[in-house]
Write a structure and sequence with these properties.
The protein has helices at about 1-20, 25-35, 40-55, 65-75, 80-105, 120-125, 135-155, 160-165, 170-185, 185-195, 220-235, 245-255, 330-335, 355-360; strands spanning about 200-205, 210-215, 260-265, 270, 290, 295-300, 305-310, 320-325, 375. It folds into 2 domains: about 1-195; about 200-375. The model is unreliable at about 345-375 (pLDDT under 50). The chain has 14 helices and 9 strands. Helix 3 packs antiparallel against helix 4, helix 5 crosses helix 7 (about 135-155) and helix 5 (about 80-105) crosses helix 9. It is about 45% helix and about 15% strand. By secondary structure, it is α+β, with helices and mostly antiparallel strands. The strands form 2 sheets. Strands 1, 2, 4, 5, 6 and 8 form a 6-stranded mixed beta sheet that branches. The protein is globular, with a radius of gyration of 23 Å. The termini are far apart.
Length: about 375
C-alpha cells in the first residue's frame, strides 16, 4: 500500500505543479507517475484519472498529450471514461486543428517530420513561421502530439455512453480525417470519431432481393461489419455464403473482456453503395451512404475469393449488430429505385484490386473509411 500511496501523492504533487505552471516540477512528477503507474491498483488509477483530467487544461507544449495517454491507460484499466472524456476530447480537438494548420504552413513538397520523442526540434517551428507566434506553436505541437492523442481518444470513445454524449463532432472528425488523408498520421483518431451508434442499417441482397433492417453500434470497420453480417444472415440460412467461425464473431463483438482480438474471415459478399461504387472492407461503416433515414448497403456476390486476417480496431470497444426485421417485397422495390448497377472496377472477374483502388475512398469527402490485411 505504501507504493500506491506514493503514486497518489505524486498525482497530487503533479496537480499542484501544473496549476502553478512550475515546468520543472511538472516534469519531475510526470516521471514519477510513469514509474509508479504499473504498480498502482485499479481503484487508485480510477481516482488518478479524474484528478489528472482536472489539470489537463493547465498543461503546456504537448505535455497534455503525454498525460492524456496516462489517463487513457487508466481508463483501459477500468477507470470511468465519462469523467475523463470532455477534457481529453477538447484538447485532442485543439491539437487536431493545430495539425491541420501545420499542413498549410509546412513547405510544399517537403517530407513531413516524423514524430519521434516528446519534444519537436526547434528547426521544425522555423519552417512554419515565427517560432514565438502562438499559432505557429499550436500548429507544431498539434502535429507532433497527434499520434499520442489517438490512444487517449480511443480509450474514452470505447464507451458507448461517451460516444453518445460527444459524437458526432463533424469539425473534429473532418480535421482528423483530412490530416490522415494527407499524411497517414492520425488514422485511428479519425476512425474512433467515425464510430456509429444505434444506427439504422438497411441491407439488400441484390441476387435474391431479400432486404433486412439492422441496428448497429460500435462497429469500427467493414471487416468487422462483413463478418457480423455473415453471422446474422448466412449462419441462420437467410442468405448463401460462408458462415464465420464462432471465434471470429466473438472477436468482432468483444462482448467480454477476454474476447479474442484477432480473427480470420472469408468474404461472402461484395459491399456496394447505392450508386454502384464498391465499399471496401478496409472502409468504415460511416462510409455507407444514407438513403431515406438509414444507411443503405447492397450485397452483391463476391467478384473473387476474399479472405482476411484482421484485428478489432479498438480493443475495449464492444460492438452490436441486431437484426430488427425483414423488409417487405414492396419496401425492397422502393429502395431499389435509388440503386444503380454495380461498377466494374477490374478488367477480369478474378483480378485483384490495387492498393490505390482499394483506398480510393480516402479522396472522397462525401464518403468515409482504414486497414487490416485482405488476401
Amino acid at each position: 500500500m505504501r507504493l500506491v500511496s506514493e503514486f497518489l501523492g505524486a498525482v497530487a504533487s503533479f496537480q499542484a505543479a501544473a496549476q502553478h505552471h512550475d515546468e520543472d516540477a511538472v516534469q519531475r512528477q510526470l516521471t514519477q507517475l510513469r514509474h509508479q503507474f504499473g504498480q498502482a491498483s485499479d481503484e487508485e488509477l480510477d481516482i488518478a484519472a479524474g484528478l489528472l483530467s482536472d489539470v489537463l487544461p493547465d498543461l503546456r507544449d504537448g505535455r497534455d498529450a503525454v498525460v492524456a495517454v496516462l489517463i487513457g491507460a487508466c481508463v483501459e484499466r477500468g477507470a470511468g471514461a465519462a469523467g475523463c472524456a470532455e477534457p481529453i476530447l477538447a484538447a485532442a480537438q485543439r491539437a487536431t486543428e493545430g495539425a491541420a494548420d501545420f499542413l498549410t504552413r509546412w513547405p510544399s513538397g517537403w517530407e513531413y517530420p516524423r514524430q519521434t520523442g516528446e519534444t519537436p526540434p526547434p528547426s521544425m517551428f522555423e519552417q512554419l513561421g515565427e517560432p514565438d507566434d502562438p499559432l505557429v506553436r499550436a500548429a507544431g505541437i498539434g502535429w507532433w502530439t497527434l499520434p499520442l492523442w489517438q490512444s487517449a481518444v480511443a480509450a474514452v470513445l470505447s464507451s458507448k455512453d461517451v460516444r453518445k454524449a460527444f459524437l458526432p463532432n463533424d469539425e473534429f472528425f473532418w480535421n482528423a480525417r483530412e490530416v490522415a488523408i494527407a499524411t497517414g498520421v492520425g488514422t485511428y483518431l479519425a476512425q474512433a470519431l467515425a464510430v456509429l451508434d444505434d444506427q439504422k442499417l438497411v441491407v439488400i441482397h441484390r441476387p435474391t432481393l431479400e432486404g433486412f433492417e439492422f441496428q448497429m453500434s460500435g462497429v469500427a470497420d467493414n471487416f468487422q461489419l462483413h463478418t457480423l453480417l455473415e453471422e446474422r444472415l448466412v449462419t441462420p440460412g437467410h442468405l448463401p455464403g460462408t458462415p464465420p467461425s464462432p471465434l471470429a464473431v466473438e472477436a468482432c463483438l468483444a462482448s467480454s473482456p477476454d474476447a479474442p482480438y484477432e480473427y480470420d474471415g472469408t468474404g461472402s459478399f461484395n459491399l456496394v453503395a447505392p450508386d454502384g461504387s464498391w465499399i471496401w472492407n478496409e472502409a468504415w461503416p460511416v462510409d455507407i451512404p444514407v438513403v431515406g433515414g438509414g444507411r443503405l448497403l447492397i450485397l452483391d456476390p463476391p467478384p473473387y475469393e476474399r479472405s482476411w486476417h484482421a484485428a478489432r480496431a479498438f480493443i475495449g470497444m464492444p460492438a452490436a449488430l441486431s437484426l430488427e426485421r425483414r423488409i417487405s417485397e414492396d419496401g425492397v422495390k422502393r429502395l431499389m429505385a435509388f440503386v444503380s448497377p454495380p461498377q466494374e472496377l477490374f478488367p477480369t472477374s478474378d483480378a485483384e484490386p490495387s492498393a490505390h483502388n482499394k483506398r480510393h475512398w480516402w479522396h472522397r469527402r462525401e464518403a468515409r473509411q482504414a486497414e487490416p490485411t485482405e488476401h
